[in-house]
Amino acid sequence: MASIESILTETRVFPPADAFARQANVSGMDGYEALCRQAESDYEGFWANLARQHIDWKKPFTRTLDESGAPFYKWFDDGELNVSYNCLDRHLASKGDKTALIFEADDGSVTQVTYKELHARVCQFANGLKSLGVEQGDRVIVYMPMSIEAVVAMQACARIGAIHSVVFGGFSAKSLFERIEDARAKVIVTADESLRGGKAVPLKHAVDEALAMGDTSCVERVVVYRRSGGDIAWGGRDLWWHELAQTQAETCEPVWVSAEHPLFILYTSGSTGKPKGVQHSTGGYLLGAMLSMLWVFDAKPDSDVYWCTADVGWITGHTYVAYGPLSLGMTEVIFEGIPTFPHAGRFWETVAKHKVTTFYTAPTAIRSLIKLGSDLPAQYDLSSLRLLGTVGEPINPEAWMWYQQVIGGGRCPVVDTWWQTETGSHMIAPLPGAVPTKPGSCTLPLPGIMAAITDEHGGPVEKGHGGFLVIQRPFPSQLRTLWGDPDRFRKTYFPEELGGKTYLAGDSAHRDDDGYFWIMGRIDDVLNVSGHRLGTMEIESALVANPRVAEAAVVGRPHEIKGEAVVAYVVLKGTRPVGEEAKKIVAELRDWVGKEIGPIAKPDEIRFGDNLPKTRSGKIMRRLLRAIAKGEEITQDVSTLENPAILDQLKEAVK
Ligand code: 6R9
């Protein structure tokens, strides 16, 4: 495993610069260690103090952590609050006229809203939702482009206690249908089309298709935001966003909910075909978002211009676009487009244009920008930057170095943040004024996060050896359950083998002599393609759903830019295709997967065989398929294979 060895030899260490450390929210290793000690000596007191200090409670909590129903933990559960109040109302008196959102559209046009204006828009939309009969606990699907309106829709749901479930605009009608059905959504909020790199992506049309796929009688209304003005079909449950919102009052009393009230559901891939509805709480989630903004991004609400490039369809776009920055009253950029449109310098141009101080993106974006050369960023004034972050997948040390030197000018700390949809907020990441960084390591856990590496029985693992990444104590921002599937929640994240109370992240990792964490990859059948989680089973199920396909196996292969590429081995019902016919079927199957799941899941490569290599018990030998995909020499014993000749077939990709 070449990538793991090369990481192991990484010895560069970057201590925080004095000037940065002096102004940091947490300064020096002693500052970090003092927080860790507080958490260790009085775990509940540590979190309770922070929750009182940072959150405005309508009704203060008296209970901190309730472990009686473990692993269904509760935090601050007799306290009452509202997330939208904490993100908007509480800033109005002191910074009502401050810019909250700077919207940078696909074509480069800019729209800004102040806290006062954002508050008014959220209230109007919340009143609009109420007028449609949306009540506390109802589910609202948000299938929107990156826009001020997407943030408004999420905040409006939070304001009235409705549970939003954002579905990434790149997901297909079929994926959308599955989520509508599972969440039993009452209202869908969408747009006519989204614009990406100058191209229109039909969203409303996908909603129409999804609603025709099965029993969607739960959906009473579809609210459509006019983004592009493109042609769309119109039906009985449809209504325009502007018609719904513009006549509504600009104030709306927040619905005060228990800290344990679900704020949202976000579907993510797991090791079976069915996406998991990760359910988050209100109080614990908000606390995680706020603390990590302050600790890891060293947030300075009065001077920072913060930009996280993630789409609101992913967890990063929830915690670090829709909630975290607003909860601190910051000014943030939200970006509709893609990094290379209308030109390859778009990201850096945007940093210079808005004098961005804090920039947070994914390794896949960094790697693709590295390919374009260092001259490009040099053409823009990046001197406003003071901190850089990365998320979504392991970052190669060389990409980290480029980011630190070429983008950060050697002056900005780089925070590599490890966390997941399920953890809600950062878990392992450097506090930039305290923890020295090492390229490729997410460094040390946040104070209060009891991360560890264990063997398969929960026992300790020697330093330097890989094992399961776990979190040994409950923490406020963790998922509460899987929507409608508590059994799967328990089995997936709190397996009996580890004692039933330890959170199993699904990643493998090792620690070095300084206790630093190095993430090695997923232990389940989940691929990480351009920072997006894709279940191999989901893609296999999609392929097998095609009438031509008898059997399919999907594996990942290291990819220079995307992290992993999707390689599919397919057995057709007829004979194995070759030449032009094979090419034609490859194109057809890629399109098919695009429609079933979404374009991000399209296999990069499809290989056809008369059969797949299987063990005696009939299990597909995925390890072997991974080796073949990488073009590695096969050293495994293949004597048990029924038909070893198929290995030669599978070595051939359709060109
Ligand atoms: C936030 C997010 C979670 C999975 C996670 C891991 C990978 C995320 C990482 C990282 C190495 C990092 N991952 N951040 N691996 N270093 N800094 O990405 O959530 O979409 O749920 O993905 O992504 O494998 O388990 P999500």
Automatic annotation (TrEMBL):
Keywords: Acetylation, ATP-binding, Ligase, Magnesium, Metal-binding, Nucleotide-binding. Acetylated. Deacetylation by the SIR2-homolog deacetylase activates the enzyme. Residues 32-87 form the Acetyl-coenzyme A synthetase N-terminal domain. InterPro entries: Ac_CoA_lig (IPR011904), ACAS_N (IPR032387), AMP-bd_C (IPR025110), AMP-bd_C_sf (IPR045851), AMP-binding_CS (IPR020845), AMP-dep_synth/lig_dom (IPR000873), ANL_N_sf (IPR042099). Its cofactor is Mg(2+). CoA binds at residues 196-199, 316, 530. Its EC number is 6.2.1.1. GO terms for molecular function: acetate-CoA ligase activity. Residues 538-619 form the AMP-binding enzyme C-terminal domain. Mg(2+) binds at residues 544, 549. Residues 89-474 form the AMP-dependent synthetase/ligase domain. The keyword Repeat does not apply. It comes from the Bacteria. ATP binds at residues 392-394, 416-421, 507, 522, 533. Catalyzes the conversion of acetate into acetyl-CoA (AcCoA), an essential intermediate at the junction of anabolic and catabolic pathways. AcsA undergoes a two-step reaction. In the first half reaction, AcsA combines acetate with ATP to form acetyl-adenylate (AcAMP) intermediate. In the second half reaction, it can then transfer the acetyl group from AcAMP to the sulfhydryl group of CoA, forming the product AcCoA. Belongs to the ATP-dependent AMP-binding enzyme family. This is Acetyl-coenzyme A synthetase. It comes from Thiobacillus sedimenti.
